[in-house]
Design a protein that fits this description.
Helix content of chain B: 25-40%
Number of helices of chain B: 13
Protein name (chain A): Oligopeptide transport system permease protein
Family (chain A): Belongs to the binding-protein-dependent transport system permease family.
Largest interface: A-B, 22 and 31 residues
Shape of chain B: globular
Shape of chain A: flat
Oligomer: heterodimer
Mean pLDDT of chain A: 75
Order of helices and strands of chain A: HHHHHHHHHHHHHH
Structural class of chain A: mainly alpha
Strand order of the largest sheet of chain B: 6-7-8-3-9-10-12-11
CATH architecture of one domain in chain B: 3-Layer(aba) Sandwich
Radius of gyration of chain A: 25 Å
Subcellular location (chain A): Cell membrane
Strand content of chain A: under 5%
Low-confidence stretches of chain A: 26-35, 350-355
Keywords (chain A): Cell membrane, Membrane, Transmembrane, Transmembrane helix, Transport
GO cellular component, one term (chain A): plasma membrane
CATH class of the largest domain in chain A: Mainly Alpha
Helix content of chain A: over 70%
CATH topology of one domain in chain B: Rossmann fold
Structural class of chain B: alpha/beta
Number of domains of chain A: 2
């Protein structure tokens, strides 16, 4: 029933969008505009592309939700296994309240029904707060940390890689390669400990941990988290830039009299960045998992810390909710990356939105 | 006629792991204003390196000009700094490359790529440069130029891209245009169109062209004078007529003999046996001697100087020495020479003869 319902919803949405699309395509008023504007064509193609991808995303999320749900049920232990203080009757009441006595398929259907309505259920712990509230309260610090470290890391990494490529085989090249190798091979929590010891304990420049709003609380966790994306992007930028600098169109540009700076930034960078976009996806994901540990170390009240705690106590709705949240984040990031491709690489722009 | 370019005893080497490769070993030639000089030779003969040296586009840091002078309108450009060369490239000398599929920047609009040298060298405003870019595209025969300049290279076919490359090279009305095998990567019908276009443009702009190729058919079509290169040296240089009707060097005979014609029934296509010498350790005598069936004893000991055949025609072979046995070119080459003269399979030669 629920399955049909959600399929129906998808169909409805798709039809609606198609009708709107058709309206734009066939409306006489828009014909002239459409003929003249390649921008219009591009936006329309982009719209279709996004719509298609959103439908795929919903299907993906449904599959993830189902798999997580059943996996969780297979796991040993129950939400009450840690609570030996409760009498059997009390336990019975609790199980009844959360619907845990129902057969698993019923629970599954009920869960999906709630999910479609945007209800992730009530947490078994934390005073029975709705999971959506828990996520909403905790998403802030994680999102800020993740975004900051991704942006800072990628920018620094690209710069490092560029320097390495321009001074190929020079001292700066070796330095930046060493930084990149260290960054990829040393886990972020080792850096976190080191940073805390040196900059917080010894020098006292930044707070050791906690999250109280000030920017000084961001510095150490962001540095710890950005090392990995920085190292990866430095390595990629260096390799790609060297390849690009050796390519024929760079010789063409030099034959036109373009300066070294123009060669690197105007002609080289954009072409060198295309492959980097591919790795930003996995990098963003690894940042998400990276925050799990870093949030513990720096005692930051983010989703990661929440996730670890809820797994410890078999808090089913919270585990489900967090997993789904991560999944949504992941598929959205991938969609954004695909769109970014189109913006940076004109060759993909046309083929990406085919009918 | 006025001399535009005068190359004196140019030597270019590459440092490699196996030692110094002497790619060009003392090459002298000149190019008059409005003239087309073809440089012919097999792969590795140093023809491309010679022209890369003219623009100082040798791959750094391995490639370097070891010795010699390159006088452009009397000014030695070997001594110029990178900054001064940047002003020269695209402005006074420009270059058309071999493979149009890779010699345009894939992520930059075609118009921007044409406008780049205009804005840099002629200090044009963007609007003015855009106008000129459209003019240039029309000049090289691309229809609908005002739309085409907003497109990217992948939206052009191979022949069209080569036209764009030519438009870029022509942008600043260069005094010298270097075409490095501009038709090699194109199919035969497009080759003919591009050659026709280049001849047409030369008639309009009166610039000098250095045309590098290994295709003697192409040479017959475009060249006023021909320089034949072998193992980093010019072995024969003369007007197109002299090279085609009165070749003196056995290597030129070999090249002519290996050129397929439409009416060569009954005559074998001759291949030159062996392969070019190792340029890390060039032979002491005539580099072509091991592959030359007419080689004399002296060829193994002493390098032949350039013997004067006529005021415009020189060849480096001991066969021209007064003591040497008189040797006629092989029968098949003679037939081929006659074939060119009688049937006019190489129309360019006939035309040049009329001049």
């Amino acid at each position: 029933m629920i399955w049909e319902e959600s399929i129906w919803t998808i169909k409805l949405a798709y039809t609606l969008f198609s009708i709107i699309g058709e309206f734009f395509v066939n409306n006489e008023l828009s014909v002239n505009f459409r003929k003249e504007s390649t921008l219009y064509q591009e936006v329309l193609q982009m719209g279709r592309f996004i719509l298609k991808r959103v439908v795929y995303m919903v299907i993906t999320l449904f599959i993830i939700a189902s798999i997580t749900f059943f996996l969780m049920k297979i796991l040993p232990g129950s939400p009450l296994s840690a609570e030996n203080k409760l009498s059997e009757e009390q336990q019975e009441i609790v199980l009844e309240k959360y619907g845990l006595n129902d057969p698993v398929p019923i629970q599954y259907v009920n869960y999906l029904a709630g999910l479609v309505q945007g209800d992730l259920g009530l947490s078994f712990h934390f005073d029975s707060t709705p999971v959506t509230d828990i996520l909403a309260n905790r998403v802030g610090p994680s999102a800020i940390l993740g975004a900051e470290s991704l942006i800072v890391g990628v920018i620094l990494g690209v710069l490092l890689g560029l320097i390495a490529a321009i001074f190929h085989n020079g001292v700066l090249d070796f330095t930046s390669t060493i930084i990149a190798v260290l960054g990829t091979s040393i886990p972020s929590f080792v850096f976190a400990g080191l940073l805390q010891y040196v900059f917080a304990v010894q020098l006292g420049w930044f707070p050791v941990a906690l999250w109280k709003g000030g920017l000084e609380y961001h510095v150490l966790p962001v540095i710890a988290l950005m090392i990995f994306p920085m190292a990866i992007s430095a390595r990629f930028t260096r390799t790609e830039m060297l390849e690009v600098l050796g390519s024929d169109y760079i010789t063409t540009a030099r034959a036109k009299g373009v300066t070294q700076a123009g060669i690197v930034f105007k002609h080289g960078l954009r072409n060198a960045l295309i492959p980097l976009i591919t790795v930003i996806g996995p990098m963003a994901v690894s940042l998400i998992t990276g925050t799990l540990v870093i949030e513990q170390i720096f005692a930051i009240p983010g989703i990661g810390e929440q996730f670890v705690n809820s797994v410890m106590v078999n808090d089913y709705p919270t585990i489900m909710g967090t997993t789904l949240f991560y999944s949504v984040l992941f598929v959205v990031i991938i969609l954004i990356i695909d769109l970014l491709y189109g913006i940076i690489d004109p060759r993909i722009r046309l083929s990406g939105g085919e009918k | 006629m006025d001399k535009l370019l005068d190359v004196k005893d140019l030597k270019v080497s590459f440092n490699t792991f196996s030692g110094e490769v002497q790619a060009v070993r003392g090459v002298s030639f000149d190019v008059n204003k409005g003239e087309t000089l073809a440089i012919v030779g097999e792969s590795g003969s140093g023809k491309s390196v010679t022209t890369k040296a003219l623009m100082q586009l040798l791959p750094k840091p391995q490639g370097f000009i070891k010795d010699g002078q390159i006088l452009l309108e009397g000014e030695d450009i070997v001594q110029k700094s990178e900054k001064e060369m940047q002003k020269l490239r695209g402005q006074d000398i420009s270059m058309i490359f071999q493979d149009p599929m890779t010699s345009l920047n894939p992520t930059m609009k075609v118009g921007t790529q044409i406008m780049e040298p205009l804005i840099k060298h002629q200090k044009m405003s963007r609007a003015k440069a855009k106008e000129r870019a459209i003019e240039l595209l029309e000049l090289v025969g691309i229809p609908d130029a005002s739309t085409r300049i907003t497109q990217y290279p992948h939206q052009f076919s191979g022949g069209m891209r080569q036209r764009v490359v030519i438009a870029i090279a022509l942008a600043c009305d260069p005094k010298l245009l270097i075409a490095d095998e501009p038709t090699t990567a194109l199919d035969v019908t497009i080759q003919a169109q591009i050659l026709e276009l280049m001849k047409d443009i030369q008639r309009k702009t009166e610039s000098s062209i250095i045309f590098i190729t290994h295709d003697l058919g192409v040479v017959a079509n475009v060249a006023d004078r021909v320089a034949v290169m072998y193992a980093g040296k010019i072995v024969e240089i003369g007007t197109a007529d002299e090279i085609f009707y009165n070749p003196k060097h056995p290597y030129t005979w070999g090249l002519l003999g290996s050129m397929p014609t439409l009416d060569n029934d009954g005559y074998d296509l001759i291949a030159i046996p062996g392969s070019p010498p190792d340029m890390t350790d060039p032979p002491k005598g005539d580099a072509f001697a091991p592959r030359n069936e007419y080689a004399l004893k002296i060829d193994e000991e002493l390098e032949p100087p350039l013997f004067k055949v006529s005021d415009t025609h020189y060849a480096a072979t001991w066969l021209l020495h007064e003591d040497a046995p008189k040797i006629e070119p092989p029968e098949s080459v003679k037939r081929r020479m006659q074939g060119i003269a009688n049937t006019g399979t190489a129309p360019g030669v006939a035309k040049d003869g009329e001049k």
